[in-house]
Design brief:
The chain folds into four domains: 127 residues, no CATH class; 40 residues, no CATH class; 53 residues; 136 residues, 2-Layer Sandwich (Heat Shock Protein 90). The chain is 56% helix and 19% strand. The protein is built from nine helices and eleven strands. The strands form three sheets. The chain has a five-stranded mixed β-sheet with strand order 6-8-9-11-10. A four-stranded antiparallel β-sheet has the order 1-4-3-2. It has a two-stranded antiparallel sheet with strand order 5-7. Strand 8 and strand 9 form a beta hairpin. The relative contact order is 0.06.
């Protein structure tokens, strides 16, 4: 859930609870105030009746209306209580039940005791209370809605620099220049952008340093490797030395060849990462696959590997050497890690190039298979673990994607153009 959505949800829930609590509190307070006013009016009526009795020693003549009625009831004993309460009574004039506020008190006239009941209608009070509550509720609801809209617009605008920074980070690639996020009026976002700028600058600097070291190291290794190879060949030609140190010399020669292949692979990776290849050549993928398959045919025949090729003419603007690297590495691995009387299937269409093979190896780690120097524990020792990493880098340079899956005991590599 987005921070903005979570904030809005909490804000709306809190506002609704406050709104309901405020409306209830306002209703009861106003109800109390209006009832208090009715009670004061009833007290005034009581005072007028008492004053009239004291002045005339008789009960006043009562004229009842729709809003107020007064009743005298003679009782045997003096009624000394004063009672206020609300009660729903039948209104003869309106022919309906209405809420009335009642005042009941007692009075004595010429030694005769009376219970006096004064009823005052609460309908106007309740109507007035409902109107006030409705107006207040409407105002509060409008304020909440306006606040929500304003918050949505304002917060979205305030958070826009953050989303701009996230967009820049998501599109950032290490080989590009360091990110330069602009300053913003919001101090927190400005601090975030400044920190990201410094971090990417350090990462870019470290990456360039490491890339330069790799390229320089691989380049400088060429001369001593050439010297080792030359002297090893000289020793191999000396029969006296060869008889005494054949195993040692063979080990040195094999190690030198492996180191040379590793050096060439690192140099190739450096060139690909530095984009030193111009992808402007016209490549005929179906012809390239047929050509590489023909070159490796004798090797497959020696292992009795069955090759199935299903291609259609596919032309692309790419680089001849890089395209050759893709086909050679994938087909070479399919042969190298296959078993006697195994099979290799190659399919090529307008959208993808797929190569699958049987193998002595079980399923590979899909999360690490394209990492540099990754090798399955059962992999042959002559590999350096860079072949698939190089293929992935070449695909990345061309805008292709490569995927791996293990299905029906077959390793399947697919390049999506």
């Amino acid at each position: 859930m987005k921070l903005f959505s979570k904030y809005n949800r909490i804000n709306i829930i809190a506002s609704i609870l406050i709104f309901l609590g405020g409306c209830l509190a306002f209703y009861f307070v106003m109800d109390y105030v209006l009832i208090k006013q009715l009670d004061e009016a009833l007290e005034t009526e009581e005072s007028e009746i008492v004053q009239y009795v004291q002045s005339h020693n008789s009960l006043p003549e009562i004229v009842n209306t729709n809003d107020q009625q007064t009743y005298f009831v003679e009782v045997a004993e003096p009624f000394s209580k004063t009672i206020y309460h609300s009660k729903k009574l039948w209104n003869k004039s309106e022919q309906e039940s209405e809420w009335m506020r009642q005042l009941i008190f007692g009075i004595t006239v010429s030694n005769r005791h009376y219970q006096i009941t004064v009823n005052k209608s609460q309908e106007e009070t309740k109507g007035f209370l409902q109107l006030i509550v409705l107006i207040a509720a409407t105002m509060i609801a409008l304020i909440l809605i306006a606040g929500y809209i304003i918050n949505r617009v304002v917060l979205k605008r305030l958070w826009q620099p953050f989303y701009n920074s996230i967009h820049s980070i998501s599109n950032y690639q290490l080989q590009q220049q360091a990110i330069q996020l602009p300053s913003t009026p919001i101090e927190e976002f400005n601090l975030l952008n400044h920190t990201i700028n410094q971090m990417t600058a350090r990462v870019e600097k470290d990456y360039q340093t490491l890339k330069a070291f790799t390229g320089n190291a691989a380049h400088e290794m060429q001369t001593p490797l050439a010297v080792i190879s030359t002297n090893t060949e000289s020793l191999m030609q000396d029969e006296t030395v060869l008889k005494l140190h054949h195993t040692t010399i063979s080990t040195i020669e094999e190690a030198a060849k492996r180191l040379s292949r590793l050096n060439q692979s690192l140099l190739l990776l450096t060139k690909i990462e530095n984009r030193r290849f111009d992808l402007t050549e016209k490549i005929q993928w179906d012809e390239l696959i047929q050509k590489r398959a023909s070159e490796l045919n004798e090797l497959m025949v020696s292992q009795n590997i069955h090759l199935s090729i299903d291609t259609v003419p596919v032309t692309a603007v790419f680089h001849q050497h890089l395209a050759d690297i893709i086909v050679s590495n994938l087909l070479g691995n399919a042969i190298r890690y296959n078993y006697q009387s195994g099979s290799i299937d190659i399919q090529l269409n307008k959208s993808a190039f797929t190569i699958s093979n049987t193998s002595t190896l079980p399923s590979l780690d899909e999360t690490r298979i394209f990492n540099r120097f990754y090798r399955h524990p059962e992999t042959k020792v002559d590999g350096n673990g860079l072949g698939l990493s190089i293929v992935q880098q070449v695909c990345h340079a061309a805008g292709y994607t490569i995927s791996y899956q293990y299905n029906n005991n077959r390793h399947i590599f697919t390049i999506h153009f």
